[in-house]
Specification:
Keywords: Hydrolase, Nucleotide metabolism. This is dUTP diphosphatase. GO terms for molecular function: dUTP diphosphatase activity; magnesium ion binding. By secondary structure, the chain is mainly beta. It has a single domain, classed as Deoxyuridine 5'-Triphosphate Nucleotidohydrolase, Chain A (Distorted Sandwich). 5% of the residues lie in helices and 36% in strands. It is built from 1 helix and 12 strands; from the N terminus they run βββββββαβββββ. Strands 2-3-12-7-9 form a 5-stranded antiparallel β-sheet, with no helix packed on it. Strands 5-10-8 form a 3-stranded antiparallel β-sheet. It has a two-stranded antiparallel sheet with strand order 1-6. β2 and β3 form a beta hairpin. The chain is globular, with a radius of gyration of 19 Å. The model has no long low-confidence stretch (mean pLDDT 91).
């Protein structure tokens, strides 16, 4: 079995390749390729200046998850919203940053670490249509049903 290889294409002169922060880091840090201001309680797509592809054994069974950096969230109340890079996507990798702060504008500078890319294996099941599901003890109990007495309805 061959190891996956991530190929990085620079789309801007000042783009940087993703880097692992430590020998055993799960994710690769990615960097902003732009200067941006994100006002309180808003979000912006931030370009990384790179596109990616990968190859290796079963490469099409993997995707990159765009994940938050814990330090960014802890220090500045900035989070990364959902992001996925599919195997067949070849455009620029963007990061959707959300400024959850109530008062301060968040300044993103070129070269700032803004997210991490985590490569994860996927299993794409076939879809079957049924009229009934098998019964389980849990049934349709959702959000908190296994440990919270009752979540109020909206």
């Amino acid at each position: 079995m061959s190891q996956l290889q991530l190929n990085v294409k620079y789309l801007r002169e000042d783009a940087r390749e993703p880097v692992y922060g430590s020998d055993y880091a799960a994710g690769m840090d990615v960097f902003s390729a732009v200067d941006e201001s994100i006002p309180p309680r808003t979000r912006k797509l931030i370009g990384t200046g790179i596109s990616v592809s990968w190859k290796g054994c079963d490469a099409e069974h993997y995707y990159l998850r765009v994940a938050p950096r814990s330090g960014l969230a802890a220090k500045s109340s900035v989070d990364v919203s959902a992001g996925v890079v599919d195997y067949d996507y070849r455009g620029e990798v963007f990061v959707l940053l959300v400024n959850n702060h109530n008062e301060n504008t968040f300044e993103v500078k070129k070269g700032d670490k803004i997210a991490q890319l985590i490569m994860e294996k996927i299993n794409r099941p076939i879809i079957g249509i049924v009229t009934e599901h098998t019964e389980t003890k849990r049934g349709s109990g959702g959000f908190g049903s296994t440990d919270v007495p009752k979540i109020p309805s909206p």
